[in-house]
Each structure stands twice: as C-alpha cells, then as structure tokens.
C-alpha cells in the first residue's frame, strides 16, 4: 500500500498525535472539530481555510502565511494589457441559431415521455404515483396493455385467518 511521501504527511491542528495525508486533512478536521469543540478554540486563517491557528498566534501567522503571497501578488499585479499579439479580429459567422424560428424549444419532460426512457415517479403522492405508473406501463407496452388484477385484500386480519380447530365440529362429522 502506497502511503505517500513523508513530506505529504501533516499533523491535525486539534491533536498533534493525529498524523495523516494532506489530502485527508479537511475530512479529518471536520471530525476533530466536533470532538474538541469544548477544549480547543482555533481560528481560521483568512488565506487558507485549512490553516487552523490558536487565537494568540493568528496575527503572527497572517503576517507569515505562505498562502498570503498568492493574495498579495494578485492584489498588487497590474491588469493584463492587450497588445497586437493578444488581440484577434472578430470572428463572423453566417450561421445564427437565434434566427431559426421553426425549431421548438426543448422540453425534457416532453422528450422523456415520448422516448424509450425509464422514468421514476419521484415526489408524487401515492395516488399520483399509482396513476403515473399506470400511464408509464401503457406508454411502454402500448394502449392495449391491461393492468393485472390483484386479488382483493382481506377486510380485516380475522377474516384472513383460518378457523381454529374445533374438536366438536370434527366429532360431529363422524357420527
């Protein structure tokens, strides 16, 4: 198993005993934040959300944070200047799709109802779901599709149970 390079390993800011791969740090921080929420108070670095620092050290960290360089460089850099090398002529085209008037708008619901696509009755009430399934079966199998009739349900649990054994009834048949 490849555990990664030693330089790719980092310590948890909540518990220095926890050591993990840098790519697993964010996931680990979420767990440790809940565990140590009452004991360890850490501030989030304004330049990198993965940097969690105790409050007394935050000021010093913001002055020396390695990710600060990226923000400062972005803020102080001049805007890009267009030169003759970077400019290009406007590209003209004879084709304009906005001019096509006879093309109907695309409606995914209409397309799915006409194509051979399996649809799910998500977010419907039970009666709507039943009607949707019936309509889908009619769409898939044709208009002559007949819904299978299910046997009627028993009206109560007592009606569906067999009668208990009655020895008197059994003895009366012998005579």
Automatic annotation (TrEMBL):
> From what organism does this protein derive?
Drosophila gunungcola (fruit fly)
SUPFAM superfamilies linked: beta-beta-alpha zinc fingers (SSF57667)
UniProt domain CHHC U11-48K-type: residue ranges: 9-36, 42-69
Q: Where is the signal peptide?
A: none
The segment annotated Disordered runs over 128-175
- Stretches of Basic and acidic residues bias are at 132-160
Q: What molecular function terms (GO) are annotated for this protein?
A: zinc ion binding
Q: Which UniProt keywords apply?
A: Metal-binding, Zinc, Zinc-finger
Name of protein = CHHC U11-48K-type domain-containing protein
């Amino acid at each position: 198993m490849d555990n990664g390079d030693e330089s790719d390993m980092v310590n948890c800011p909540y518990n220095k005993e926890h050591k993990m791969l840098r790519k697993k740090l964010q996931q680990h921080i979420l767990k440790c934040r809940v565990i140590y929420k009452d004991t360890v108070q850490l501030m989030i670095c304004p330049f990198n959300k993965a940097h969690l620092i105790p409050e007394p050290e935050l000021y010093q960290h913001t002055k020396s944070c390695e990710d600060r360089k990226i923000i400062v460089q972005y803020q102080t850099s001049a805007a890009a200047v267009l030169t003759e090398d970077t400019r290009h002529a406007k590209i003209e085209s004879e084709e304009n799709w906005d001019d096509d008037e006879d093309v109907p708008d695309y409606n995914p619901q209409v397309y799915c109802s006409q194509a051979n696509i399996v649809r799910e009755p998500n977010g419907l009430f039970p009666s709507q779901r039943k009607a949707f399934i019936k309509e889908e079966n009619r769409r898939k199998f044709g208009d002559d599709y007949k819904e299978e009739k299910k046997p009627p349900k028993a009206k109560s649990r007592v009606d569906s149970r067999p009668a208990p054994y009655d020895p008197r009834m059994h003895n009366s048949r012998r005579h």
